[in-house]
Specification:
Number of helices of chain C: 4
Mean pLDDT of chain C: 83
CATH class of chain C: Mainly Alpha
Shape of chain C: elongated
Strand content of chain C: under 5%
Number of domains of chain A: 3
Low-confidence stretches of chain C: none
Radius of gyration of chain A: 26 Å
Structural class of chain C: mainly alpha
Strand order of the largest sheet of chain A: 1-2
Chains: A mainly alpha (626), B mainly alpha (492), C mainly alpha (124)
Helix content of chain C: over 70%
Number of helices of chain A: 24
CATH topology of chain C: Helix Hairpins
Strand content of chain A: under 5%
CATH architecture of chain C: Orthogonal Bundle
Number of strands of chain C: 0
Number of strands of chain A: 4
Largest sheet of chain A: 2 strands, antiparallel
Low-confidence stretches of chain A: 262-273
Oligomer: heterotrimer
Distance between the termini of chain A: 59 Å
Order of helices and strands of chain A: HHEEHHHHHHHHHHHHHHHHHEEHHHHH
Order of helices and strands of chain C: HHHH
Mean pLDDT of chain A: 82
Structural class of chain A: mainly alpha
Chain lengths: 626, 492, 124
């Protein structure tokens, strides 16, 4: 009897190759294969797998261990759920596009690899799957052939740096513990203290930080997110980036909570300069800065894809901050947001993909007023945006509440201010997204636009519905999160199915909030629809602007630049970008490389002189060299 | 007939010199005979390797003169593994180049004669137990390599070959001087006996001898700054010869260097020397590779860089590190072989061999492009391909000796490697506009070879245990010097 | 030291072999003409070969030919091994020189020059 884990991976990886070859028969078959593979894997996983079961393998003299625990179980929701829905969405989205076999091959490979990461109990299989995930996503990022050098190679450079930092850490851990098991690493940390292994931990965190797009390592993300086909970006931003969070969580949470107090004291007393506190503070701030910068850049975008991409970076920043703060509430909010971000950002990227497919562009200056043409897409986007902005009754409110409370109770007042600023500014881009795409006057070009096909709308609506469900019954998510936190050593996490409460005794009953808002919403809708009979459609010209008739090219929708003053206020922050710094580094390195290779002059005699000089040097200094 | 290691050298040399006669009988025999020879060598490898794995090393005495007096061949876990690798690579390259120069039989004749001698010489370097014999084989390899580098008249082959010859002559001069000095002090040419008597030489003289040997063999192993010839030779030689250089010839050079360091000399600092030279070689080669516009030159620099990593592996010196280094040699042979073989089809019709000319070849040459991409992924060490494991084992061995700085540099250079290989892959599939150059479609036999290499890469990547047994044996053999001596000189 | 005829011969052989090697190296490393470089290589080879012969020489030794009469008297013989080696080395050197010369011809035809510093179409 084959182990379920192996079976699931075989289905996903085998499906990948099946999809590739079936494309030769008919492109639609590869899409269906992908959907079938993800669905079967999901069903198998949730019916057959029990938390805690394990399987051991030995490859190349290295013992591998696969299994699932409460913590990876939580992340499996995002990977499998989003993977299945995105593959369903993908069937129609990818229709008529070339090289579908190639796309689905890498799509399934990356989903399989993500499952592999979650299943890995040892660093070697973790790293193997991590790399498969990286290169398969790289191959999708360059799928449409645009800016391969700028976007694809940049993504790969950062991924490679991250992955190799991780690999270095892994071999160092092995040299120390003689074991690849992640649990042995955690034991090592907990018995010898965090600060004695600062290098390996930093390297691991760099590896995860790249995928989680933490501040100085984020520059690949926007291009990669916006350049991939949207059906993959929803997985990319929703699930793949969470693998960074997953690993980050393992290191930070497990290490933080398992370290016994005597050792941390010991480490603090001049034993080492950098203690866990320093790492925590660094990542809290990096997370907060990522959040703010992501938000500020999102504001500037006119392309909906890029807006969402920056928004993803910002949201990941919140998650990083939450985990780095490390109190129960903060971690809970971070994990909640991790799952939730997968849901709503997945939806939003799908919505943008639907718009792209139907209109051919995602530029917010070119399209507007799609609300009538694509109502379902609009509703899904609206709900996701509300969730993103953190307005009740949708689920985004819950982690926000928890995060602020967590930060305030642990005394991180300045972080609260930063994050509050960032999430307030986020309203601006949320609004711009909705307004720019769906509201405003209809453009000539979008006259004949139709709603996306059902197989694309259903996944979006399903995910959007989830935000409502989790907003009303957050306990559904609290339960696995509490289990996951229990697993990483944070015991006695309290939660309630529908009520949020804080230490000051305030409580919010989300049921009541939902019902209230629902009632208001329905009545408002009824009112509006009733009033709609009286609405009158007007042309662009039917407007009086101080008695002047506007010309054709005067933009009357103020979807652009409506927060110019704000932009002006924060303008200095845009000036120095990490991108420019990296480019400068890259250029100077290239110059150095060019200089280096001029050693090979092309003159055979020079090479001969090298040989003789080398011999003479060796002979003269032989006693000190050897 | 009893199969013995002598067949490795005698059969191909005999065939090489009699091919012209057979060619008089039937032209096709020119092509078939080398194949038969190489198939036979692979069979010999199979028989001998299974013997070695079960009953231990084979020491072959030539012409009845016993060990210290006559020339002997030592076929143990390490030399046997490398010799088998060479014969299999030789066979694959023969299949690949079967239709080579089909229209013109006279060049084909020369090609096969030289190729067979090159394989025989390389295997000879590997299995010989006598330093002067090693010199002779090195010269056989040298002369054939110079000629094969200059094989194409049209290109700059002659220039590359002349540089190769110039530096190669230095190698032979220094090797001769080294042998001379060694002989005056120990009075023997037998490697085992030299190893045994090494402690009698005064340190200063020993170091001078070591410098001579290290430089001579360092030239063949493409060690910086002795490798000026290498990128030119690789890029100008015909495709299959490039693959043979990286899969066979350079392996012989590295093998010889490692053999003299591990078996002959017992110099403390020689391992650190290997690490440092390997590091410099790797860094300079990879850094030069990233700025190349010529595909074959890029592959050549990459090859040099990989040899640097191999030297680092041996330099670390623990059994695990030696294991990793031998694994890396194996991987490099198959992966770089695949890259050279597929790459030479990709740039076949472009005289300048420019990477830019590959734009969107993924469509025109789907299988070849795919195999090239596979090779590229494998050589930078992405799992689940073969290159990953050797890299992992190497880093583990380095970490075990706490060489953190070394690991960091190797990985930084790996980032460079990732960049330039993936740039080519990106170009193959997503170049800006379709290249105007019409690609040459690969012949069936060539395709088969590339597919076999690709399959081996994936097989070893997914399940490395198929090969690790042999490599472990090889690593154990190399690090056990005493057994080597007692095998060759049982009386002592 | 110079009083001894044998010693003078030995030293002068060593000296001239080193001189040959150095002269050859000068030719290879400094001269730009391909032919001179090839000649330099041959001269270096000769120097090394000469040194081999010198090493094998033993004062007062005879030719190392074994015959029944010689074995009984156990005379002092020069070491035969270096002489065998030198023969091989000479043959190899000859082959290398032949290849080198043919390459020089090719290079001259291709580049229309025989100066090594002008033949660098392959570089970096």
């Amino acid at each position: 009897m084959m182990n379920t884990y192996i079976l699931i991976l075989l289905i996903l990886f085998g499906g990948a190759f099946a999809a590739y070859f079936l494309n030769k028969l008919a492109p639609i078959l590869s899409g269906l294969t992908a959907f079938a593979a993800t669905t079967i894997a999901t069903i198998l996983f949730y019916t057959q797998v029990k938390i805690g079961s394990q399987v051991q393998l030995t490859i190349g003299g290295i013992n591998l261990e696969w299994g699932i625990n409460a913590y990876s179980w939580l992340f499996s929701f995002i990977v499998l759920g989003l993977g299945t829905l995105a593959s369903l969405y993908s069937i129609q989205y990818m229709q008529n596009k070339e090289r579908q076999g190639y796309f689905y091959l890498n799509f399934l490979l990356s989903i399989g690899a993500m499952m592999g990461i979650l299943l890995s109990h040892d660093f070697v299989s973790f790293f193997i799957f991590w790399e498969i995930m990286t290169w398969s996503s790289f191959l999708i990022v360059i799928y449409n052939g645009k800016d391969v050098k700028k976007i694809g190679i940049k993504y790969m450079i950062f991924s490679a740096i991250g992955a190799y930092a991780m690999l270095m850490s892994i071999v160092m851990i092995f040299a120390e513990t003689k074991s690849f098991l992640i649990s042995d690493f955690i034991n090592l940390i907990s018995t010898t203290g965090f600060s004695n292994h600062i290098l390996m931990i930093t390297l691991l965190l760099i590896g995860f930080g790249v995928k989680a797009a933490v501040m100085p390592l984020h520059v690949w993300a926007v291009g990669a997110y916006s350049n991939s086909p949207m059906s993959y970006t929803s997985v990319f931003s929703g699930a793949l980036s969470k693998m960074g969070i997953y690993g980050f969580g393992i290191v930070m949470l497990a290490a933080m909570t398992y370290v016994s107090p005597t050792i941390s004291e010991n480490a603090g007393s001049g034993y080492s300069i950098i203690s866990i506190e320093v790492i925590k503070i660094i990542f809290q701030w990096l997370g907060a800065i990522t959040a703010i910068m992501g938000t500020l850049y999102a504001l500037k975008q006119t392309d909906a894809k890029k807006l969402l991409a920056y928004s993803s970076i910002a949201q990941l920043g919140y998650i990083i901050t939450g985990i780095a703060v490390g109190t129960k509430l903060a971690v809970m909010s971070a994990l909640f947001l991790a799952v939730l971000h997968g849901i709503f950002k997945g939806t939003l990227f799908m919505a943008v993909g639907a718009i792209e497919r139907q209109t051919g562009t995602t530029d917010m200056t070119k399209i507007s007023g799609l609300i009538r043409k694509m109502p379902w897409t609009f509703i899904a986007s609206l709900m996701s945006i509300i969730a993103l902005a953190g307005i009740p009754p949708l689920a985004g409110f819950v982690p926000k509440w928890l995060l602020y409370e967590g930060l305030i109770t642990s005394g991180h007042y300045f972080l609260v201010i930063l994050l509050f600023f960032s999430s307030t500014a986020a309203f601006l881009y949320c609004y711009r997204f909705l307004f720019g795409l769906f509201l405003g006057q209809e453009e000539e070009e979008t006259k004949n636009v139709k709603e996306a096909p059902a197989s694309m709308v259903i996944p979006m609506m399903f995910l959007a519905g989830l935000t409502l469900v989790f907003g009303t019954y957050p306990g559904l998510l609290f339960k696995p999160i509490a289990n996951a936190m229990e697993f990483v050593g944070m015991h006695d996490v309290t939660w309630n199915m529908t009520v949020l409460s804080n230490v000051w005794g305030d409580t919010v009953s989300l049921n009541l909030v939902s019902i209230a808002i629902f009632v208001i919403f329905i009545s408002a809708a009824l009112f509006l629809f009733k009033g709609m009979r009286g609405t009158r459609y007007v042309t662009t010209k039917d407007i009086s602007t101080s008695g002047e008739i506007p010309t054709e090219n005067e933009n009357l929708t103020y979807q652009l630049d409506f927060f110019k003053p704000f932009e002006r206020a924060v303008a200095p922050l845009y000036k120095r970008t990490m991108d420019k710094i990296y480019n400068a580094i890259g250029e100077s390195l290239e110059a150095v490389f060019d200089f280096t290779r001029s050693i090979y002059t092309g003159n055979g005699q020079t090479y001969a002189i090298y040989v003789i000089v080398f011999v003479v040097i060796l002979l003269i200094f032989k006693d000190s060299i050897f | 007939m009893v199969i013995s290691p002598v067949h490795y050298i005698a059969v191909p040399l005999l065939a090489a010199f009699t091919i012209p006669l057979f060619a008089k009988i039937h032209k096709e025999l020119t092509r078939i005979i080398p194949g038969i020879v190489l198939i036979y060598l692979t069979y010999v490898s199979y028989v001998l390797m299974s013997k070695v794995m079960t009953t231990g090393p084979i020491v072959e005495i030539i012409a009845g003169w016993k060990a210290p007096w006559g020339i002997n061949l030592v076929y143990n876990g390490f030399s046997g593994f490398i010799a088998s690798l060479m014969s299999i690579m030789g066979l694959l390259i023969w299949i690949y180049s079967y239709k080579f120069k089909k229209v013109d039989d006279e060049p084909a004749l020369k090609f096969y004669i030289l190729f067979l001698m090159m394989v025989a010489g390389s295997i000879g370097i590997t299995i010989t137990g006598d330093v002067f014999n090693m010199f002779v084989f090195l010269e056989i390899v040298g002369i054939t390599s110079y000629s094969l580098t200059a094989f194409y008249r049209g290109r700059d082959g002659a220039e590359a070959a002349f540089k190769y010859l110039l530096i190669g002559s230095f190698a032979s001069v220094f090797l001769l001087l080294g042998i001379l000095l060694l002989y005056t002090h120990v009075g023997t040419l037998n490697m085992a006996q030299i190893a045994e008597r090494m402690h009698t030489i005064p340190t200063s003289v020993k170091l001078s001898i070591f410098v001579m040997f290290a430089v001579a063999l360092g030239i063949e192993a493409e060690m910086f700054p002795l490798n000026g010839w290498a990128p030119d030779a690789y890029s100008q030689a015909p495709g299959p010869v490039g693959a043979a250089f990286s899969g066979i010839v350079v392996k012989a050079g590295v093998y010889a260097l490692i053999r003299i360091i591990f078996t002959l000399f017992d110099i403390e600092g020689s391992l650190q020397f290997l690490i440092v030279m390997g590091l410099i070689t790797m860094i300079i080669a990879e850094v030069s590779a990233i700025r190349q516009t010529n595909l074959k030159r890029m592959l050549a620099y990459s090859s040099i860089g990989q040899m640097g990593v191999v030297l680092i592996g041996f330099g670390i010196g623990t059994t695990e590190a030696i294991f990793a280094a031998i694994f890396l040699m194996f991987n490099h042979a198959i992966i770089k072989g695949l890259l050279f073989l597929s790459g030479s089809f990709l740039v076949y019709n472009d005289d300048k061999k420019q990477i830019a000319s590959l734009s969107r070849f993924g469509k025109k040459l789907p299988v070849v492009s795919f195999l090239f991409a596979l090779g590229a992924f494998a050589i930078v060490g992405f799992p689940p391909f073969a290159g990953f494991w050797s890299k992992l084992y190497l880093l583990l061995a380095a970490a075990d000796k706490n060489l953190i700085f070394l690991i960091a540099i190797i990985l930084m250079v790996s980032v460079v490697e990732v960049i330039y290989y993936l740039r080519v892959v990106g170009k193959l599939y997503f170049g800006k506009e379709e290249s105007k150059i019409e690609p040459k479609k690969p012949a069936f036999n060539s395709l088969i070879v590339m597919l076999i290499l690709g399959a081996i890469i994936i097989l070893v990547g997914v399940y490395p245990d198929v090969i690790t047994g042999f490599i472990h044996n090889a690593a154990d053999t190399l690090s056990d010097k005493a057994t080597y001596i007692s095998n060759v000189l049982p009386s002592l | 030291m110079f009083g001894d005829y044998q010693n003078v011969v030995t030293m002068s052989v060593y000296g001239s072999s080193i001189a040959l090697i150095l002269i050859g190296l000068y030719g290879v490393l400094i001269k730009k003409h391909l032919m001179k470089i090839v000649i330099g290589l041959s001269v270096v080879d000769s120097g090394v070969n000469l040194m081999f012969v010198a090493v094998g020489y033993i004062k007062g030794g005879t030719a190392p030919i074994f015959s029944p009469s010689v074995i009984d008297s156990k005379p002092l013989m020069v070491d035969p091994v270096p002489q065998a080696l030198v023969l091989t080395a000479i043959v190899i050197g000859f082959a290398v020189t032949a290849v080198a010369l043919s390459l020089v011809i090719r290079l001259f035809k291709h580049h229309n020059t025989a100066r090594i510093d002008q033949i660098k179409s392959l570089k970096w």
